[in-house]
Amino acid sequence: MFLTDQNGPNEGPPILVRWTLHRPSGRLTETVVDDRGDEFPRINGRHGGLAYTFVYTAHWGHDVTFGPAMKHDMRRQTTEVHDYGRGRKTSEPVFVRRPGATAEDDGWILSYVYDPDRDLSDVVILNAQDFAGEPVATVRLPVRVPFGFHGGWAPDRITVVE
């Protein structure tokens, strides 16, 4: 992206690539994880800077068209897809850890999903361990949330478990 066109993403969809840095040698290896078009990659925040297995992305196809969400398993090298329905388009998927969770993917995926039939957005909540399954909940919003509006999650309180 932006290799020859500095003004925009006109070189095709972005691909998901994993870079692994071997710090003692300074050697970098690059592995293509998914070349179908992925944007806004997110992981379980507890694994930031650490080893992780799961990456959640929004699909970004040709002509900058969004669509389903994807869950990439970096160990098994597999991808699950959650299709939100005809014409519906997700933005950045955000992982929310279930309190007390021990498994890396024990939690929920929250996404703004645009519904062009209504010209409005929803917050759709998925069970991260049943990623392709039916949503846990859908919150209908009275507005459209623009693409590129980034999301995050912060609990109202943090419980420290020792």
Record the SSE blueprint.
Blueprint: E1 16-22, E2 27-34, E3 38-42, E4 54-60, E5 66-73, E6 78-82, E7 89-90, E8 94-97, E9 107-115, E10 120-127, E11 137-140
Antiparallel strand pairs: 1-2, 3-4, 4-5, 5-6, 7-9, 8-9, 9-10, 10-11
Please state the overall shape, judged from the principal axes of the Cα atoms: globular
Mean pLDDT: 85
Structural category is mainly beta
Number of helices: 0
Distance between the termini: 44 Å
For the largest beta-sheet, the strand count, sense and barrel status come to: 5 strands, antiparallel
The share of residues in helices is under 10%
pLDDT below 50 for ≥5 consecutive residues: which ranges?
none
- Total beta-strand segments: 11
- β content, as a range? 35-45%
Order of helices and strands: EEEEEEEEEEE
* Rounded radius of gyration (Å): 17 Å
Task: Tell me what the structure shows.
This protein has 162 residues and is mainly beta. The chain has a domain at 36-140. The protein has no helices and 11 strands. It has strands spanning 16-22, 27-34, 38-42, 54-60, 66-73, 78-82, 89-90, 94-97, 107-115, 120-127, 137-140. Strands 7, 8, 9, 10 and 11 form a 5-stranded antiparallel sheet that branches. It has a 4-stranded antiparallel sheet with strand order 3-4-5-6, with no helix packed on it. A two-stranded antiparallel sheet has the order 1-2. Strand 4 (54-60) and strand 5 (66-73) form a beta hairpin. The radius of gyration is 17 Å and the shape is globular. The N and C termini lie far apart (44 Å). The model has no long low-confidence stretch (mean pLDDT 85).
